[in-house]
Design brief:
The protein contains 15 helices and 5 strands. By secondary structure, it is an alpha+beta fold. It folds into 2 domains: 101 residues, lambda repressor-like DNA-binding domains (434 Repressor (Amino-terminal Domain), Orthogonal Bundle), CATH 1.10.260.40; 161 residues, Beta-Lactamase (2-Layer Sandwich), CATH 3.30.450.180.
Amino acid sequence: MEVLSRVLSKDSGGGGPLAGFLRARREQVRPEQHRLAPGARRHVPGLRRDEVALLAGISTDYYVRLEQGRERRPSRAVMDGLSEALLLDAAAARHLRVLATGEAVANPSTAGMNRTRWADVRQLLDSMAVPALLMNRWLDIVGSNAAGALLHEGLEPRDNYARMVFLAPQAPSFFVDWPELAHCMAATLRAQAGYEPGASRLTELVDELAAHSSEFTASWHEHHVYEKAMERKLLRHPRVGPLTLNHHVLELPGSEGHSIWAYRPADAVTSNALLRLDLPAPSSDRPSPGPEGLTP
């Protein structure tokens, strides 16, 4: 397998990830958003390069070098100016800094999920009274409690959340806000690409999703990034009907990007519906497989 996937290489358009990100985001900003006259003879869908340079307080020549990949290490002041010019939110601005500095790649977490910690996290999952999943940075579902497994029953594949959203035939009817969720899934993976752009798991996953989902490909090339924290989820469960859940993401520091996704019922109807899933009682000593290469 190549170090970078075909899609990861193609979407940068040459010049590297930073250049591709700048080009994609520039095309999404309209002149009127900065109170610039759109002009009758404009040939680009978004801002022109000279307009971005003006708004960021840098020379046009320097900005052109950034977009062509001939300059890859802008200063913090330049990054701040570009964030304002391209109307980046906090997550996208952090992504820009990762692409420009490589700090997150140079200083990755190496503690990982050792045998003892994996067993503790498994017990924590099983003790939770709400559906919960254990995720890695590539959205692989590496563990769940009984409620988490039953929450997504009927959806296949179910080993990776992005694969489930884009490739499961039932996903568009199961997830009420499927178009928005699909966009967020692609943006979540895009954020991780800045931390470890050459990872073989990312290469494999992006290639597969791009080969089978035009929706993924379209969202991926927009270069949007998304960092999950808390959001409302609306589901249509095949057995118990509509569910309204508050989705919380609990990061596990020092775990190489693992997190717990917990789904708390947002209303009494959802609480009663989850009870109808007929969940078994939590058990902290129930055997379960660990993540790749790890057995508790």
